[in-house]
Design goal:
- The radius of gyration is 36 Å and the shape is rod-shaped.
- By secondary structure, it is mostly beta strands.
- The protein contains 1 helix and 19 strands.
- The N and C termini lie far apart (73 Å).
- It has one helix spanning 202-205; strands spanning 6-12, 26-31, 33-44, 49-54, 59-64, 68-70, 81-83, 92-94, 100-108, 112-123, 126-127, 133-135, 140-152, 155-165, 183-185, 190-201, 208-219, 224-226, 232-235.
Length: 236
Amino acid sequence: MDIEDYNYDSTEPEILKIGTGENTATIYYVKKEGKIIIHHYIYDEKTNTYSTVKLVEDNEIIGKIGDDYKTEASSEIPENYIVVDNTPENYIGRIEGQTKEINYYYKLKTPKVESGVGSEIIEGGEQTEDGKWKITAGEEIKYKIKYNTQIEDYKGKIKIEVKAILPQGTRIDQEKCDFSEGTYEEESNTITWTKEIENINTFQNGTYEDGINKEITIVYAEDYIVDELAPKVIGK
């Protein structure tokens, strides 16, 4: 005899001898088992893609049909990932005859970045009474360029890029300038420095601090009167 959600187990006694009196046999059934498979997939926040790329291996729960179950996010994910939703569809329920699959998604943690930029005039230039700056052709003007950054919750490599934009509308004598290992672009009148750092792991090593600090010498090709003499500094 078939009983829903149960499997036949045994009969006692196995062989029943029929006599003239009462004849009794006991049939035993056990509950069928069901399975829960828990997947741990990567969510790509940049493309808003819920992928089927495994971040860690699947987990399984096997139990009797009708038993309650509860799943949870993996504790074995890499330290630079975080679960998107701790309570996905069917994360709790009852075991059924058919296999259930539960999907947990994880995304990269958003790094915490604090940066500071600045520039100052070390030497050269002349400020007029009205607050403007006078530049004399051939004069050396020395600047200090500063960019510092602090990074937390990050694992991987970074590229620091710093741009110093010289006063708008000016031209410089490139051969006489010292860009301190920077690259000059004439069209934008900008000096750029880049720096790549690999194997950063703030989860193990704490806050990562770095920056680019340069002293440059600029020789302008003509006389100018400008509102601001110090370069505008942009960093990322």
